[in-house]
Amino acid sequence: MTSSRKLDLTAAEDGTTYTSSKPEWIEVSEDGLVRVLPEAKPGSKATITIQNGSSTAKMTVTVYTLDSIAVSPKRDVVYPGEKLQLKVKGSYSDRSAIDLTKSSTGTTYSLDQDEYATISANGLLEISPDAPDQAAITVTVENGNASTTYTVTVKRSK
Question: What is the CATH number of the domain that holds 122?
Fold first, then answer.
């Protein structure tokens, strides 16, 4: 192999193995997918060892908890027929923050009543063209144990 050639050796069939020092808290699949188990407590750590032939690499995985979620944009008013993409930011116990908008991150959205609006799995809020003036629309956003509500009021004229 020349030095300019790159090979992906992450798959088990390429001879790469993965092990966790704490499989009771943090497991790793044969293809390197790390999963934190429910038994893991905040602050739990595991060393993941990756080996292929004589090469070895290690990484540390630390469990953090989701402390809160916040929804943006900050809006009080929406208009009939408007589409509004909600954004969800999660704040973790290590003081980091990440985008949790997509449903693939575990975030769910629900409406208190769906007569005047719909919400997609990824947070796209669509206001009905027939929504009456002053209708309050409340979206509940949840991810794990964190939840919040987001309320806007319909205004018929701009």
Answer: 2.60.40.1080
pLDDT digits 0-9 by tens, 37-75: 888 888 889 999 999 989 999 999 999 989 999 999 999
Q: State how many domains the chain has.
A: 2
Q: How far apart are CA 120 and CA 122, in angstroms?
A: 5
Same-domain check for residues 116 and 97? yes
- Residue 119 has φ and ψ, to the nearest 5°, of -135, 130
Query: Pick from 62, 77, 94: which residue ends a domain?
Result: 62
What does residue 2 show for φ and ψ, rounded to 5 degrees? -85, 160
Please name the amino acid found at residue 114: D
Same domain, 74 and 146: yes
Burial class (CB in 10 A: 0-12, 13-18, 19+), 39: exposed
- CB neighbours (10 Å) of residue 30? 11
| 106 & 36 share domain | no
SS3 135: coil
pLDDT digits (tens, 9 = 90+) for 99-118: 999 999 999 999 998 899 99
Q: Is the pTM of this model over 0.70?
A: yes
